[in-house]
Amino acid sequence: MLHIFYHITMYKNTLTDLLKTFSLKEIKDFREFLRSSYFNKRRAVTKLYEIISAYHPGYDSDLLTKESIFKKLFPDKIYNDSTLRVLIHYLTELAEKYLVVSKVENDKPEYSIQLQMALCSRKQYRLLEKNIKRSEDFLEKESPDAEDYYFYKYRLENEKIKFMYESNYSLYEKIINKPDWENVFRDFTNYYHVKSMIMYLNSLTIHRLYNQDFKSGAFTEMIGKIDPEDYEDVPVIKIYYFILKMITDMDDDSYFYKVKELIQEYKTVINKFDLMGAYVYLNQYCIKKISEGQTKFENESFGIYKEELQEKTYLMNDGTMAPVFYRNVVNTGLKLKELSWVKNFIHKYKTELSKRYRDNYFHYCLAQYEFCAGNYESSLELNSKIKYDELYMKLKSKTLEMQLLYETKAEESLLSSLENFRHFLNNNNLIPAGPKLQYSNFHKYLNKIVLLKNRKNKSDAGLLLSKLLKDKEVMCKTWLSDKIMEIS
Which of 343, 346, 341 is nearest to 327 (CA)? Predict the structure, then answer.
């Protein structure tokens, strides 16, 4: 049937893709938005929305075609593609406008600043003064993360000075000693430093995860000018400063312990999201050190995860647990043989994962648990349920698969899996050099273990073990060591 050619997915990248992101509440609110004659004076646009939104959230029905939509809009007219395209264009623009209006309304500090600017331009100074006071009280009460706090604070202070000049025009005796430009500059500087350090940390993370280079000269120059002792009254800057020192100088463990110390000292006064970030970077440091063979950081990492669970800093903006956090807690607990604790954690926190990641991460983590408990068949079954829609999940799942094939003596399948894994590593440019080396070494040593196991003469086992223990960049190093010792 020809009409399927005009399926609405022809323009899914604009209108329908946008509407797919709307919650049920937003679908309802947007309907009210469209019914307001202030925003929308076209009844056909409102009717178009009613037709399309009936297919929320998938928008993938074969009944949702351009022709069928047009027929519902204009029962007595011949199909006109241009007319429908114009209405879709208007509806898309209104959806974008709704998002902006909704965001500003829900962002109280930004709303207040915009209102202050409007009141000041209209010389409504009494209302403006009241609004400034409310804004200051709200900012202190809500205490957003450091980046937002100093961003809004310096803007509020700047608006206060502007209001002072506007409301006392020509009355210089009233304002000569009052404008506090130094405070405005201090808040601006705090925002600049916090924002710059967060940008630097994000850049370093992207570089580490995806092997992407970036120029860091401006960042290192900025960090070099910061003296943390100048920020005793701004502890979050001190924390970010030492996090950066920790990440950029991995050989000096003192920065790690300094960050831990500062967190304990200030965790009750800094914002939850800044605290969450600090914990994340502490654990990244631990993971790197563990990969280098410094096993003392396994206990450090496990302690940090437990503290995060206690402080509930693992919760993201949408109230869910980050899937990587879930997986890392499990991996760390299993390394320390905390099997009972880990099993309880896997089941207890499963529902806190978002639906998008829940099944994959639950199956993987439970497969890891069953593997460590020696239940290899159960682990294989769980691991087979994982869908490879994420690079690092595929790497970890494939690694576990090879371990399980080895343990279950499925040598033919293992050799095939090893060869496929080698091709995958060689052909994937998104894997950074560090992780790629770790997984490549896992492949190399497991391949040698399989060859050695099939030899009558096992005299090379000691030499292989010695090489493995000296090699810092190896995934699943402890397990590989155990397998060599079992052979010898």
Answer: 346
Residues 6+ positions from 421 with CB-CB distance below 8 Å = 398, 399, 402, 439, 443
Q: Determine how many CB atoms are found less than 10 A away from the CB of residue 211.
A: 15
CA-closest candidate to residue 4, choices 65, 46, 55:
65
Token pair 């699943």: residue: 476
293: left (phi over 0), alpha (psi -120 to 50) or beta: left
Domain encompassing residue 141: 108-179
| 133/82 same-domain check | no
Domain assignment present for 466: yes
pTM score, two decimals?
0.65
Residue type, 57: P
Pair (7, 79) in one structural domain:
yes
C-alpha to C-alpha distance for 222 and 198, rounded to whole angstroms = 12
Residue 220 domain flag: no
Q: Are residues 53 and 27 in the same domain?
A: yes
Contact 270, 260 (CB under 8 A): no
Q: Can you read off the two tokens belonging to residue 332? A: 């760390």
Q: Please name the amino acid found at residue 421.
A: F
Residues 6+ apart with CB under 8 A from 365: 326, 327, 330, 346
| pLDDT, greater one: 439 or 435 | 439
**Residue 426: count of CB within 10 angstroms of its CB:** 11
For the stretch 60-98, pLDDT in tens is 888 888 889 999 999 999 999 899 999 999 999 999 999
Q: Look at residues 145, 163, 179 and tell me which one is the last residue of a structural domain.
A: 179
Range scoring the smallest mean pLDDT among 11-20, 43-52, 226-235, 380-389:
11-20
Domain tally, the chain: 3
- Alpha carbons 69 and 16: distance in angstroms, whole number: 14
The domain boundary residue, chosen from 48, 77, 106: 106
Q: Closest by alpha carbon to 277, among 441, 148, 146, 401?
A: 146
Q: Confirm if 328 and 287 have CB atoms less than 8 A apart.
A: yes
**Are 117 and 47 contained in the same domain?**
no
The string of pLDDT tens digits covering residues 126-173 is 888 888 888 888 777 777 778 888 888 878 877 777 776 666 654 445
* Of 152, 53, 141, nearest in space to 109 by CA: 152
Domain assignment present for residue 50? The answer is yes
- Please give the mean pLDDT across all residues of the chain: 86
